[in-house]
Amino acid sequence: MINGIINIKKEKGFTSHDVVAKLRGILRQKKIGHTGTLDPDAEGVLPVCLGKATKLCDLIGDWDKTYEATLLLGKTTDTEDISGQVQEEKEVLVQEEEIAQIIRAFVGNYAQIPPMYSAIKVNGKKLYELAREGKEIERKARTITIFAINIVRFLPPDRFEIDVDCSKGTYIRTLCSDIGKALGCGAHMAELTRTRTGSFALEDAITLGELQTMADEGRQEEAFLSMEAALSDFPKIIVSPKSTKMLYNGGRVYAKFYEAEKELTAGDIAAVFDSEHHLVGLYEVRDEEGFYIKPFKMLI
Question: Is position 39 annotated as part of the catalytic site?
Fold first, then answer.
């Protein structure tokens, strides 16, 4: 069984589940999971975890992300993107300077109402299922963070491209719709590319077709990133032989029995290895009458 992560470049027309299904066929392995959905019309970075690395799916899915999106002004749709039905049309009179001023206001914490066409469950039913039945229900706003948002290119009179650095849970099509509301003319998302998830970048991603070619040539392992490499941004801790048993049992290991590559403080998360440098998991540093580490996510 393969244990590792593949940085897939999802192409338009595929759902995230489609990608997983095709990977199972290419790699002949069942234990595969993706790290966060991308709409069928969207493309870009989709890290996929295999084998033991599937334990990292939620963690990687929580990492910050970067997107490039194209907004089309003057039209609102029921799905907030180009795939939906047009609900309203307005004349576009805004200029680039006004657009730039408006989008700057979205930087920071932002209470975003999830779209009806989303996979969020309410009373056991996904919102998009209710939307397809013609139903719309009240949704609670969720606080997300826009770290940066910039206009990449203005395409007058009614289109412009932006790049967005944001936290997990951000719906870019809803951001586009909200920008349109703030501009007074409405808008929807015409195109979307995810260019980064954490340390996984678009320039390093491969398509399913490229992976199939590699598999046909028997060199598919060239596409895999190890769990250790995927967690390289976390500080590293090596536990002494004396505490290896305690480590594998999920118990506390006090600071005198491990060596950290840098000074850590309470609340830090570190990648922890046994005395033979085998990755055991992610551990949280605690300070209760002395520093120790406690399991955050076991990976063995």
Answer: yes
